[in-house]
């Protein structure tokens, strides 16, 4: 047989620059069997197909198609005149190696078959069937030499057993060529096709922080997996990882558009959602589990599995208000070298801090000091999540315009309001009389006790003096995060680059 390894094909971008197709060779590693073999990967916009190399019959006579019952008469000097291969003990079927694979009957062990054929009577009736595909252990034609073995011992069941069944000590002569003899070719055959919609990619060993070297796996919504895909270099692995991730994200955005088409303006899914690792501490150390995150309307959702139906959105594991959360990227792991920064951002190079498992992570800080830590696969994913969160918070602030909290000061019950247009206002809860008001720009600092009390420092516009206001809240963390969200949205609304990227059409700028 001759086989020419296909050259990897370049990605074909669409008009928006998104990767649609890609093909190439990789190694597939099965952790259960510890086997590794070549596979051909074919990436399309909707699916990743894995092809395995096998031998197929390209020509045969019509009579070879159906089952055949054959009566063999034992010869006094030549035995049955056939050879067999395989056996259940080798996890392959027993076949007559001169024909094709897959005896129609039940699983039989190799030596059992040899014994049955040797001790049968003068006539043996067997049923055989010809199949289109031929297993890899039949790649060698009948009579071809196998691996080096001790010829004084029994032959390997994966090679011809004619010496046993012919009843003599000489190998049979190779068959004469015939026009009706089947011809074989090595071909890449589709083994599995994985849909990419809501699929996820992982470079980490399941449930751990251990990063695989030049490896990753793709898992689909229904749990199907590629097993472990291995590549020769980090660059090749990253190229495939980025290509698959790009197509997954592209399909995600299309799905979001469909959902938003049938949702109200206040219940839109914002920019990004997807499967992601959640890191948590346990008694045995740090463990990881996949979670499905979504930014929709005023909330941040954490699911155990992706929501498929409208009812599934009510089954979230946890839900948080966007304006009362804080998005935090772990560490400033980008190097000072601007070129290295670009390579890290594109996922072409690993960060040195990946060794401590803290890079490419972000945390969601929520009320009462609680937090959730998540990990992404690429720096581009981290940047996308940060931008998506900023946009979702900005749009939510624009939608609600103000947020009020009950608080107390010196025994009085007050109402503290954060307003996008006017800034900070504090009024009496009962009489609604305004006690004081400051713009966002007048807030010069703050301090808190980490529990319930906060001191806000404002600069008086007339006296230019710093005035301190001390307030007490039931959930201080949520209030502080909300203040941060409104100030960030105010700053973003005055940033020309942000306004351009968000198609922002201007708002009240007089505060």
Layout of SSEs?
Elements: E1 9-13, E2 19-30, E3 35-43, E4 47-59, E5 68-73, E6 84-87, E7 92-96, H1 110-119, E8 123-128, E9 133-134, H2 162-165, E10 183-195, E11 200-202, E12 215-219, E13 228-230, H3 234-261, E14 269-282, E15 285-296, E16 299-303, E17 318-321, E18 326-329, H4 338-346, E19 361-365, E20 371-375, H5 379-400, E21 402-409, E22 412-419, E23 423-428, E24 434-438, E25 443-448, E26 453-459, E27 466-473, H6 476-493, H7 496-501
Antiparallel strand pairs: 1-2, 2-3, 2-13, 3-4, 4-9, 4-10, 5-8, 6-7, 11-12, 12-13, 14-15, 14-20, 15-16, 16-17, 18-19, 19-20, 21-22, 21-27, 22-23, 23-24, 25-26, 26-27
Helix pairs in contact: 5-6
Protein described:
With 511 residues, the chain is α+β, with helices and mostly antiparallel strands. The chain has 4 domains: 9-53 and 192-243, PH-domain like, CATH 2.30.29.30; 61-181, Pdz3 Domain (Roll), CATH 2.30.42; 264-396, Pleckstrin-homology domain (PH domain)/Phosphotyrosine-binding domain (PTB) (PH-domain like, Roll), CATH 2.30.29; 401-501, PH-domain like (Roll), CATH 2.30.29. The chain has 7 helices and 27 strands. The protein has helices at residues 110-119, 162-165, 234-261, 338-346, 379-400, 476-493, 496-501, and strands at residues 9-13, 19-30, 35-43, 47-59, 68-73, 84-87, 92-96, 123-128, 133-134, 183-195, 200-202, 215-219, 228-230, 269-282, 285-296, 299-303, 318-321, 326-329, 361-365, 371-375, 402-409, 412-419, 423-428, 434-438, 443-448, 453-459, 466-473. The strands form 5 sheets. Strands 1, 2, 3, 4, 9, 10, 11, 12 and 13 form a 9-stranded antiparallel beta sheet that branches. Strand 23 and strand 24 (434-438) form a beta hairpin. Helix 5 (379-400) packs across helix 6. The longest helix is centred in the middle third of the chain and has 28 residues, at 234-261. The radius of gyration is 34 Å and the shape is elongated. 25% of the residues are buried. The model is unreliable at 1-10, 98-105, 140-173, 332-357 and 504-511 (pLDDT under 50). Pfam families: Syntrophin_4th. One of its GO terms (cellular component) is cytoplasm. This is Syntrophin C-terminal PH domain-containing protein. Keywords: Cytoplasm. It is found in: Cytoplasm.
